[in-house]
């Protein structure tokens, strides 16, 4: 799940963060309280606050948990992906409708300077955000079991509660119009109040160099936002920002059609997965 412009290497230095002093627990509690307040008003408030707080939060993680420079680079990349994605989503103007399904699922697109064409899926799901978060984050490696567009998701490294590096292998499209691709991504998972975020972008990892015979695609910034429906908190307003560079010699018209259809398919597969989960829970309760 992005253009090479955003691809960052894992060797970023954070030496200046090691020298920061005076971060006290009461200050961090205040920052944490401030961030928890952000999910309510809307994405523009969230992104502006995250931008002001990210360096301070990174310093706290470094000091309190003793992360290495490599680990901190992944944390920073994940935060950057979240900031950029929410910044894109907060801009409501300029989106063009790509497709609207019979059930109301909608895919929109926009062309951004230095990024290219990005896609945004907007759907309403009959699930609480926490259940969706558990499926997409807590059970991330099981995605290949229910999403036929994904062959495998493997977590290569976890850093704390919020950050992980993953390797994903996509399936070929019908007719092999687009062959399988693999991705190495850093992912940032956050919860702010009742709203859940899962952001990501391409990275590099020593355990997963490019594989011979496999096209290494790039993505990012991407972000899934899961927010309770105002009318019914047991339903979720589900938004997925997708920006991807599949590489290879594929006409853009084909790529754009494949990506928008992939998002629609994902929503349907996720609905089916969640329905199956409910059925299994009911069967076990009997």
TrEMBL record:
Pfam families noted in UniProt: START
Catalysed reaction equations from the record: cholesterol(in) = cholesterol(out)
Subcellular location field: Mitochondrion
Keyword Cytoplasm carried by entry: no
Superkingdom of origin organism: Eukaryota
GO MF entry, a single one: cholesterol transfer activity
GO cellular component, one term: mitochondrion
Pathway: Steroid metabolism; cholesterol metabolism
Described function: Plays a key role in steroid hormone synthesis by enhancing the metabolism of cholesterol into pregnenolone. Mediates the transfer of cholesterol from the outer mitochondrial membrane to the inner mitochondrial membrane where it is cleaved to pregnenolone.
Official protein name in the record: Steroidogenic acute regulatory protein, mitochondrial
Protein's organism: Seriola quinqueradiata (Five-ray yellowtail)
Gene this chain is encoded by: StAR
């Amino acid at each position: 799940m992005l253009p090479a412009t955003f691809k960052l290497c894992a060797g970023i230095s954070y030496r200046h963060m090691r020298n920061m002093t005076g971060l006290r627990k009461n200050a961090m509690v205040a920052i944490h309280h401030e961030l928890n307040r952000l999910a309510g008003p809307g994405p523009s408030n969230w992104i502006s606050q995250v931008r002001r707080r990210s360096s301070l939060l990174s310093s706290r993680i470094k000091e309190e948990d003793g992360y290495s420079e490599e680990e901190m680079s992944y944390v920073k990349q994940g935060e950057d992906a979240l900031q950029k994605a929410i910044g894109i989503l907060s801009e409501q103007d300029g989106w063009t409708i790509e497709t609207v399904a019979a059930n109301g699922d909608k895919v929109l697109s926009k062309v951004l300077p230095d990024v290219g064409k990005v896609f945004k899926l907007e759907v309403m799901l009959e699930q609480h955000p926490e259940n969706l978060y558990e499926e997409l984050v807590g059970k991330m490696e099981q995605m290949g079991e229910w999403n036929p567009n994904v062959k495998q998701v493997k977590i290569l490294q976890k850093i704390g509660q919020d950050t992980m590096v993953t390797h994903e292998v996509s399936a070929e499209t019908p007719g092999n119009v687009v062959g399988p691709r693999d991705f190495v991504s850093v992912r940032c998972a956050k919860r702010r109040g009742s709203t859940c975020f899962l952001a990501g972008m391409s990275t590099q990892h020593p355990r997963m160099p490019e594989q011979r015979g496999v096209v290494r695609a790039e993505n990012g910034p991407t972000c899934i936002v899961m927010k309770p429906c105002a009318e019914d908190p047991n339903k979720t307003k589900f938004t997925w920002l997708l920006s991807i560079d599949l590489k290879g010699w594929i006409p853009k018209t084909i790529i754009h059609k494949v990506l928008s259809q992939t998002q629609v398919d994902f929503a349907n597969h996720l609905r089916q997965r969640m329905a199956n989960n409910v059925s299994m829970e009911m069967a076990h309760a009997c």
